[in-house]
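Go through the following before class.
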Amino acid sequence: MIPSASFGILGYIFMAGCLWKIARDENVGDAWMAWVPFINIFTLFRIANRPAYEILFLILPFVNIVILAFVFMRLAEKRGHLSIYGLLLFLPLINFLVMFSLAYNPRKIQ
């Protein structure tokens, strides 16, 4: 049980660190909120320029998948990648690579 819990904690720290880096690069105020569970969703929506009331739709089954798809696609676009690239965040294990790529390999169009 201990190894699985430590993998979960390490995974959370990694994803929160990547989200914090993206928020800092995108000049989103209160980038520290990326480290706080549940509140980091606000940071994700602020980066994607989505209205805060859409967070309420995350409690609805199937609607939450559509809302998150739009948010992930917009996140990829803001970092200079194709919007379809953001949908890879739904795939287990690959989402770590995609998040790392979005955080540390932005393709900003100058």
About this structure: Residues 58 and 67 are 7 Å apart (CA to CA). The mean pLDDT is 92. The radius of gyration is 14 Å. The helical segments are 2-25, 40-47, 63-78, 94-104.
